[in-house]
Design brief:
- Helix 2 packs across helix 5 (123-155).
- The chain has helices at residues 3-32, 62-72, 76-89, 104-119, 123-155, 160-171.
- It is 64% helix and 0% strand.
- The chain has 180 residues and is mostly helical.
């Protein structure tokens, strides 16, 4: 087998292993995610929500409400109620197309508008808070991925070139894991 094919195969295998690992760890964390309370505080844990629109394997659904409540100075229960109302009003009527991703920017804009109206807060404040939350989440996911890849390189599971390729693939949205 040529060296190029071996490298390509190694990168592909690394990406698949990483994707499987992220999926398994996400499913495991979904099974143990505690239900948020009205008094929960903002978390800096890297297992924090990765998506404010879906729960299950993607993280703690209540985390975005807690983060928004803190940033906006509004009661978390009111934010949770407003988010739930937004989700109910915006449930998809059809299954998503295979491989299609929702437009996060449009979803956040619609959510900011609805939350601003429901909570009596300026839309620009909600938009800024959502942007801060999304940026922090992305940074947390990137840091967690870097840690996992560094460990894999150190353990000899991946070469640094393979780890760099996985990082680039995630950043470009080719594979999941943090590039949303």
């Amino acid at each position: 087998m040529s060296r190029t094919k071996r490298i390509t195969l190694g990168i592909t295998a690394g990406a698949l292993a990483l994707g499987a690992g992220l999926g398994v760890s996400g499913m495991a964390s979904a099974a143990t995610t505690p239900t948020p309370s009205a008094t929960s505080s903002t978390s800096t844990d890297s297992s924090a929500s990765t998506d404010g629109f879906r729960g299950g394997h993607r993280g703690d659904r209540g985390q975005i409400a807690a983060d928004l409540a803190t940033k906006l100075g509004v009661d978390q229960a009111k934010v949770t109620e407003a988010i739930q109302a937004f989700r109910e009003a915006n449930k998809p009527t059809t299954a998503p197309t295979e491989g299609a991703r929702p437009d996060r920017t449009a979803q956040d804009a619609d959510m900011a508008k609805a939350l601003a109206s429901s909570l009596g807060v300026e839309e620009s404040k909600v938009t800024a808070a959502l942007t801060e939350i999304r940026t922090a989440e992305k940074a947390e996911r990137a840091a967690a991925l870097k840690t996992r890849l560094d460990t894999a390189v150190k353990d000899g599971t991946l070469t640094q070139t393979e780890a760099d390729a996985v990082t680039k693939a995630v950043e470009k949205g080719v594979i999941g894991g943090g590039g949303h």
